[in-house]
Specification:
Helix content: 10-25%
Shape: globular
Bound molecules: guanosine-5'-diphosphate, zinc ion
Structural class: alpha/beta
Number of helices: 7
Radius of gyration: 21 Å
Distance between the termini: 49 Å
């Protein structure tokens, strides 16, 4: 028996990367009806020859992403560019929230740093507790840090189009030959509805989905207004000190989160974006 990770599903076959190479596997009929195997699933299979096998077991999933459908994602790299397009911090906070909700530890990647030289964003988000890597797909700056973040993990790249997601992967590993720029390609939004997601195999042992993560940025309905604050890691230290349990950190008196904003311990824009998202959740609760 061999264990491995499914990186592609096509025509009834599951392509599995194992320690000693890649195998084309299938599921036995009885098994097939009960199990939906996703890319990212860890499976145990019985090899039949050098490169084929029969899947005997699917190991329990740690996470499950819906867009794109991938199992066991443990990293979301939220890519923004320092310019072209200019960073929209509300959108960034929305992506970070999606990562937190999915339980996949978001890491921020600020790309195209070669075009600006300097940016306040890294300091701001590091103080909020996030890991921020600063990169240039053009000069290669920060690409080795990106490599470290992707190593041995299953990751999705998220972020608006045009920020350099494909370019970064190409500079990390040129043989991926992903299309960049305006041309419609797999890492570009819009095309992936007809094709299944595949995991790109990295030389560092990691996998990256070939489809951008979180193409749907709506807040899931199961998130309630009272728990929204728990998805802001920079609020965490203060939440237990609010006067009222169930504090929405909005109009309530003696709110430790609001005090932290005034004291400069929580970045003002993060709080403002929280309030905007809170209204969105409240509106959603009202409708259902
Ligand atoms: P994606 O839509 O996020 O995959 O973005 P692409 O990788 O297609 O990049 C969009 C455009 O930005 C392309 O024209 C790239 O050549 C350019 N680009 C990507 N990364 C950088 C960078 O770090 N610096 C500069 N100057 N241009 C970049
Ligand atoms: Zn509060």
């Amino acid at each position: 028996m061999i264990t491995g990770t499914v990186f592609k599903a096509l025509g009834g076959y599951y392509f599995v990367r194992a320690r000693d190479g890649d195998y084309r596997c299938y599921l036995r009929g009885r098994f097939r009806r009960k199990n939906k195997v996703l890319v990212g699933d860890n499976v145990v299979f019985k090899p039949q020859d050098n490169d084929t096998g029969v899947i005997e077991q699917v190991q329990p999933r740690k996470t499950r992403l819906y867009r794109p459908p991938v199992a066991n994602v443990n990293r979301a790299i939220v890519v923004f560019s320092a310019t072209q397009p200019n960073p929209n911090l509300f959108l960034l906070d929305r992506f970070l929230l999606q990562g937190e909700i999915a339980g996949v530890e978001p890491v921020i990647c600020l790309n195209k740093i070669d075009l600006v030289g300097k940016s306040d964003i890294p300091t701001m988000y590091r103080s909020a507790g996030y890991t921020v890597i600063v990169t240039s797909a053009k000069t290669g700056q920060g690409v080795s840090e990106l490599n470290e973040v992707l190593k041995d993990n299953i990751s999705v790249l998220a972020g608006p189009s045009g920020v350099g997601k494909s370019s970064l992967l190409n500079s990390l590993q040129p043989d991926l030959s992903l299309e960049t720029g305006e041309i419609s390609s797999k890492l570009k939004a819009g095309r992936h509805t007809t094709r299944h997601v595949e995991l790109l195999r990295l030389k560092n042992g990691g996998f990256v989905a070939d489809t951008p993560g979180f193409s749907n940025l709506n807040i899931p309905r199961e998130i309630t207004s009272t728990e929204l604050g728990y998805y802001f890691p920079d609020f965490e230290d203060f939440l237990p000190h609010c006067r009222f349990s169930g504090c929405l950190h909005h109009r309530e008196p003696e709110c430790a989160v609001k005090k932290a904003v005034v004291d400069g311990k929580i970045v003002g824009t993060r709080y403002e974006h929280y309030i905007t998202l809170l209204h969105e959740v409240i509106e959603q609760e009202r409708r259902h």
